[in-house]
Each structure stands twice: as C-alpha cells, then as structure tokens.
Design brief:
The complex is a heterodimer. By secondary structure, chain A is of the alpha/beta class. Chain A has five helices and five strands, in the order βαβαβαβαβα. A five-stranded parallel sheet of chain A has the order 2-1-3-4-5, with helices on both faces. In chain B, the strands form four sheets. Chain B has a five-stranded antiparallel sheet. In chain B, strands 9-11-12-14-13 form a five-stranded mixed sheet. Classes of the chains: A alpha/beta, B alpha+beta.
C-alpha cells in the first residue's frame, strides 16, 4: 500500500484540527507538519533534499498572512521542482474571480470551506480521490 | 351749381394746381433728404411750426437713455462724444469727460492691450473685456467697438457694458460649484468607504459564522440526545440563528457589490430573462398552482445579470405573498411610452418602457409603499414569511443605476403591482 504524503497550509487552528483528525484515521495517508502560510510551505519544500520525499498533494487555505493560497500556487507552478505536485485551494469565500484565476494558474481543485462536519468529510474524501 | 367754366378758366385752374403739386413734391423731397429741420405751415389757425423728429434725433435720445455707456472716439483716442451713463461709470461730470483721452480710463499695464483693440476696432467690429478706471471707481466692462461714419471722418464708437453684477454672480457660482465638487468628492469617498466596509465586514464575518455552524451542527449530530430538552431547543435556536445570519451576510455582500462604476449595458431581450427565471421557479409555481401571464416584452439596454436579480426578487415576492385560498395570478406586462413618467402616454416610438409585475396576493397597506424599498425593511415577522428584506432594496438600487424608477402600489387583501420605468437605451 502506497503511503500518500499530504502537505497542508492553514492559519486557522480549528480547520487544522478537523483535517488532522480526518487524515489521522486514514492508514494510507501521512501528514506533513502543518504550515501556516505560503512562505512556510516553500521553506518546508526547499528543505526536502530527496525528490521522492516530496508531497503527493498540497492543500492550501486561501486566506493566509504573508503569502496567500493563490500567491503560493503561482510560485509552486513556476518552480520546476514542484510544478507537478497537484495543488488544492480551499477558501471561506469562493468567488468567481478566485475560481477562474486559480484554475488558470493550474490548481487541481478549488473548494469552499464547509460549515458542517459531513460536508467536511465529503470534501476531504474528494481531495484524497485526486491522489488515490 | 356753378356756371360751366370756359376753357381758359379751366386751363388757369390746372396751372395753379400743378404749381401746388410741384411745391408739395419739393417739400416732401426736402424733408426726405433732411434738408429741412422744421416747417412753418399757414393753417386755419395762423402759422404753425412743425419740427421734424429725424431718425438721428431718436437715436440720440436712445443712446442717452440706455443702460450702457457710450463714447465716440477720434483717431487720437479723444472722447468727442459721451453719454451720461459713461460719465456716471467713470464718476466724472459729463462736461469734464468730453475732450479727454480714453486712455485716461485705462490702467497703465492695459494700455498696450487697449491700443491694439483700438486699432482693430477700425478694421472690424470687436468685443473685449477691460477694467475701466474711473475717478475712485473701478468697473469691469465689456467694450463693443464699431466704426461710425461721421461728417468729420471715421470715428470709433464704443459701447460699454458694466459687468460688475455678472462678475459677482460668476464668482458666487464658482464658489458654489467648488463647494458642490467638494461635497460630491466627500460623498464618493464615503460611499467607497461604506462599500468597502460592507464588503470586508461581510467577508470577514463569514469565517466565525462558519465555525459557529460547524461546531453547533456537530454538537447536534453527535450529542443532541445527551442534552436536556431545554438545551436541545437552545441548540436548535443557535443553529437556526446562524443560518439566518448567513442569509443576511450574503445579502449584504450582494448589495454592497452593486457598484455603479463597472456596470455594462447591453441590448437584451427581456423575455429571455423572464422565461429563464420562470424555469427556475418551476417548482414553487407548480406547488402553488400559480398562473403566470407574460405579455409582450421589449428589447432594452440593460445589465442582464442585475435586471435578472430584480425580476427574480419581484417574482419571488409575488409567489411568496400569495393568498393561500386563491390561485395566484402574476402578470408581467410592458408598454412603450413617451415620457419618463408613470402616467405617460403610450408611444410606439417612445424612449421609455413601463414594465409591470402585478399579483393578486395579500398586498400591503399603501402607506408603506416607499418604506418597503428600504434596506432590510420587512412588513411581516420572520415566522410568517421568510426573507431578509433586502430584495426590494436591491431592486431599487439596480433600477436606479439603470436610470430608471421603481414604485409599488397595492390594495391590502387584493394584490400588489410593482411598476418600473426604464429608458430603452443607455448613455455609456
């Protein structure tokens, strides 16, 4: 069974807790330590020497300080080493422009943050489906 | 009756009449060519003196009496004639004015300007503004120059119009305009502020609201039956309030995003928008067994998305506020009219359309006819009818941005009519 490595950035502790609880229950998923903004994501990625150890999926919250989801997406897709990794953006407010822009930049998915636990589970399962 | 006159008598009479006729013709000719100033006529009451009001005399009186100052200058810029008004304007007795150089009344640094104007005046009629410097009195004037053909040679006539009042009015107008501009700018800034505030507030409010919904629904799903009955109800109330808050925030966001700056108009078939909406409303229409009548609808220059929202709100209201015991009938009709008025005459070539959405629902008291368009204004409690009360406020804002008007009229218990006037085309 291949272990999927997921790297997540979110500055909100509640969302991080819910997501951690979900993925901890999945035996084929390993979660990187959380990043809280785009700059931290880049730092973490740069420290990984072996390309085999790069994450299989990167999930980014849109509203983060210093470097938000869209900005991080841009940088990732412009860095040869990381461009191939699927990136998902999830956000409190999914407006038309954000969706268009992120897809144009090469995001694999853009989702709204759910307001119920069941919707959360559905959403995270959908995320997993991209790399399973 | 006289005895018949003989030939020589008649010839004499004829000669006499001919001489009279010649004299009369000569007199008329003399009068016409201005050779005589007065006539002494031997009449029934003795000699009578008649003076002639020549055209010249009438003009002299006219120039004397008019409000403008008038001077005649010779080639040396000397005032050879002036009316009393000019003397008044420069605050000098008329007798002193005549014979002075007109330059006396021009400021030194305007001298070159006036000399150039003076020369120009001999070539063609012209008008210019200048400051007239009188005796302890300064007057801004408009000079109107034209040449006069006098016996003594060509002279320059100048009519002076006092611009003092005009200048003062202009100054005040400018001040008022500047004030207005300033207020407008402040208003615009305030508006942008408000829009930004509404946008940011709604945006940022959504996050904590999401958390409330997330955790309260989780609590309900996992632990509702662990709670005492009263707490269960409290939990339900928390959840339903959070949903209400969500609707309000979404509505505020939509309302605040209605900005006039980036509105794009395009010629649109209104019928398509309505048909599309009726498809969306298929379920509630079937449910209420409502009958929708759509009349002939025009092509108008509008922002389709925004106008769609307007009719969505109006149709939604018409369906929502229907009477339970009656089959709801909603009529959407239009007519082309001449003027921008609700009672305007119909005109196939008119520049405006009046569109009406009429229902036979519960109606409302006409005294609320303006209030209902206020933001978040509701006439019924939340329990009876759902809704945040923003629908009509949005409709009003959109219609106004389309340079139109919306109004409502109703008979409580019988139904309501919402009437919109829209210009057929927009200036972009």
């Amino acid at each position: 069974m291949q272990i999927k490595k997921i790297l997540l950035a979110d500055d909100d502790i509640d969302d991080r807790t819910i997501i951690k609880n979900f993925f901890d229950k999945k035996s084929d998923v390993w979660l990187f330590p959380f990043a809280e903004n785009g700059t931290e994501i880049i730092d973490i990625l740069n420290k990984i020497e072996d390309t085999d150890n790069l994450p299989d999926l990167i999930i980014l919250d849109q509203n983060m300080p210093r470097m938000n989801g869209k900005q991080t997406l841009l940088q990732l897709k412009h860095t040869e080493r990381y461009a191939h990794i699927p990136v998902i953006i999830y956000t409190s407010y999914k407006d038309h422009k954000l969706v268009t822009d992120c897809f144009a930049l090469g995001a694999a998915m853009i989702e709204s943050k759910p307001s119920s636990y069941y919707d959360y589970e559905d959403m995270l399962n959908n995320f997993l489906a991209i790399i399973r | 009756m006289e005895a018949k006159k003989n030939y020589s008598q008649l010839a004499e009479e004829n000669e006499h009449l001919r001489l009279q006729l010649d004299e009369a013709n000569e007199t008329i000719e003399a009068i016409r060519t201005g050779q005589v100033d007065a006539l002494v006529v031997k009449g029934a009451n003795g000699h009578e003196l008649y003076t002639l009001k020549s055209a010249d005399q009438s003009y002299r009186v006219f120039i004397e009496k008019m409000i403008e100052g008038a001077v005649t200058l010779n080639r040396q810029k000397v005032i050879i004639y002036s009316n009393s008004r000019f003397a008044e304007m420069v605050n000098m007795p008329l007798s002193k004015v005549i014979g002075l150089s007109f330059e006396t009344f021009i400021a030194t640094n305007d001298n070159d300007f006036f000399s150039a104007l003076f020369d120009k005046g001999f070539a063609e009629d012209c008008k210019e503004e200048i400051i007239l410097e009188g005796n302890h009195r300064t007057t801004p004037c408009q000079l109107s120059l034209t040449t006069l053909d006098l016996d003594e040679g060509i002279a320059l006539s100048i009519i002076l119009t006092d611009l003092t009042t005009q200048k003062e009015t202009q100054r005040q107008l400018k001040l008022k305009n500047e004030e207005l501009e300033k207020i407008n700018l402040e208003l615009e800034l305030s508006n942008i502020d408000l829009q930004q505030f509404a946008y940011v507030a709604s945006h940022d409010l959504q996050e904590p609201l999401r958390k409330i919904q997330l955790f309260s629904t989780y609590l309900k799903d996992k632990h509702l039956h662990d709670l005492p009955l009263e707490s269960q109800q409290h939990l339900e109330r928390i959840i339903s309030s959070s949903y209400r808050m969500k609707s309000l925030i979404v509505d505020i966001l939509n309302y605040s995003r209605l900005s006039a700056d980036n509105i794009i108009f395009e010629k649109t078939e209104l019928k398509n928008i309505i048909d599309n909406l009726l498809e969306d409303f298929e379920e509630p229409i079937l449910e209420k067994k409502a009958k929708i009548i759509v009349g002939e609808l025009p092509v108008v220059e509008i922002n389709p998305g925004q106008i769609r929202q307007v009719f969505q709100n109006l149709i939604s209201n018409a369906l929502k506020f229907s009477k339970a015991e009656k089959v709801p009938v909603i009529a959407i009709t239009s007519k082309r009219v001449e003027d921008f008025a609700f009672n305007s005459k119909e005109n196939k070539e008119g520049n405006f359309y009046i569109i009406s959405v009429k229902d036979n629902g519960i109606g409302f008291n006409n005294k609320y006819d303006k209030q209902i368009f206020t933001l978040f204004e509701r006439l019924h409690s939340k329990d009876k009818f759902d809704g945040t009360g923003i629908g009509l406020a949005i409709a009003k804002k959109v219609i106004e941005q389309h340079n139109g008007i919306i109004m409502a009229t109703s008979i409580e218990g019988e139904g309501s009519e919402f009437i919109i006037i829209l210009p057929a085309t927009q200036v972009q």
